[in-house]
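HUMAN:
Just now I want nothing more than another pair of eyes on a protein record. I would be glad if you read both lines and explained how they fit together. I have put the entry right below:
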Amino acid sequence: MKTMIKVFGVIVFIAVISLSTATAQSAQNIGRITITEIPARYDGKFIMLTVDTGGSGARNVAWGTRTINGTSTTINLLDWVTDQPTTINAGNYGLNIILAANMSAIANDQEEFIGIIMARALSGETVSVEWGEFMDMTN
């Protein structure tokens, strides 16, 4: 009987550890990026965000678009290949933004702002990134 109780205790302990690990990992999946402190002159503009693996040989992993409303905006991430809602794991990524009047303006190289962050640590379900972190690549 004591052996059964010990075995049961070990099974419960393993289950609790597995559940807490799975919960911690899911909390580290990033599904949205909020860009804050956007200059007021860009209110109403279209923003496109891409997320890449950073460094040499970087590859895109996610993207999203939205119209800016005010001085911050939250962009839901889509898978780069499937265009389906996605999450990415916590880690270091490159971030790129393009602002324009609309998607057609971006397609026709009529961007108003292009910004890049070469490497940024991201963690949490919604990541907050300040506008000033982006290096201006316009012109």
